[in-house]
């Protein structure tokens, strides 16, 4: 019997959450560099990750929050990325992160693009059901199927397990890139991750 060799496609794991403005900036850089296929988008619940690591998020520290807001505006302007700080920050991204795991893989790219843009470019409250419904329609995703899917225990467990696994790998924030068992944290480490990938 002829042996069939399976070629594993090497990618950079990209840990993200829609709630993270720096994840949005990293995502925009990835698209601009035409490197989307290089990255394996891995959904995590950032709040859950922070809880595991006993980390107080900048959103709950007035001084850090002020700096983060100004920093994101500065970085976006420097990189010509359309960005607007969302009036509803922070919000609970649980259902959207579960949704990313539930939907068909052929619709994931558009799902990511539209929800990131809605939240960090268009200042849309993506926790409002009517706003979610509109974006799902643009993604050609059935609302009823989506609402049922994010309630499935296997989807709940998958997001929890991905978050726990990220914690075990010493991921403590988003975005984080892992390639060749090396961890790179922050949108400003994207280029370092790519260098490691291409080494």
Which short descriptors sum up this protein?
9 helices; alpha+beta; 199 residues; single chain; 50% helix; four-stranded mixed β-sheet; Glutaredoxin
Task: Please characterize this protein's 3D structure.
This protein has helices spanning 21-32, 46-52, 62-78, 94-102, 108-120, 129-138, 143-149, 153-168, 190-198, and strands spanning 12-16, 39-43, 176-179, 182-185. The protein has a four-stranded mixed beta sheet, with helices on both faces. The longest helix is centred in the middle third of the chain and has 17 residues, at 62-78. It has a single domain (12-23, 41-198), classed as Glutaredoxin. With 199 residues, it is an alpha+beta fold. Strand 1 (12-16), helix 1 and strand 2 form a beta-alpha-beta unit.
Mean model confidence by pLDDT: 94
Q: Work out the number of β strands.
A: 4
How many domains is the backbone divided into? 1
Basic shape: globular
CATH superfamily: Glutaredoxin
Radius of gyration over alpha carbons?
17 Å
Parts with pLDDT < 50 across at least 5 consecutive residues: 1-7
Q: Could you give the distance between the termini?
A: 36 Å
CATH topology: Glutaredoxin
The proportion of residues forming helix, as a percent range, comes to 40-55%
β-strand amount: 5-15%
Q: From the 3D coordinates, which CATH architecture would you assign?
A: 3-Layer(aba) Sandwich
What kind of sheet is the major sheet? 4 strands, mixed
SSE string, helices as H and strands as E: EHEHHHHHHHEEH
Q: Structural class of the helix and strand makeup?
A: alpha+beta
């Amino acid at each position: 019997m002829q042996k069939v060799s399976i070629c594993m496609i090497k990618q950079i794991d990209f840990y993200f959450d829609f709630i993270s403005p720096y994840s949005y900036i990293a995502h925009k850089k990835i698209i601009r560099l035409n490197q989307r296929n290089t990255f394996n988008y891995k959904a995590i619940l950032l709040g859950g990750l922070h809880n595991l690591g006993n980390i107080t998020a900048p959103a709950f520290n007035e001084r850090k929050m002020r700096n983060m807001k100004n920093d994101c505006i500065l970085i976006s302007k420097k990189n010509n990325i359309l960005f607007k700080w969302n009036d509803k920050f922070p919000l609970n991204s649980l259902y959207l992160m579960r949704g990313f795991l539930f939907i068909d893989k052929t619709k994931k790219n558009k799902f990511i693009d539209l929800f990131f843009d809605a939240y960090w470019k268009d200042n849309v409250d993506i926790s409002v059901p009517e706003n979610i419904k509109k974006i799902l329609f643009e993604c050609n995703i059935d609302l009823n199927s989506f609402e049922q899917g994010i309630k499935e225990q296997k989807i709940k467990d998958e997001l929890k397990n991905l978050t726990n696994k990220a914690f075990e790998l010493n991921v403590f924030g988003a975005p984080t890139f892992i390639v060749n068992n090396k961890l790179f944290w922050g949108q400003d480490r994207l280029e370092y991750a790519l260098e490691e990938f291409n080494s």
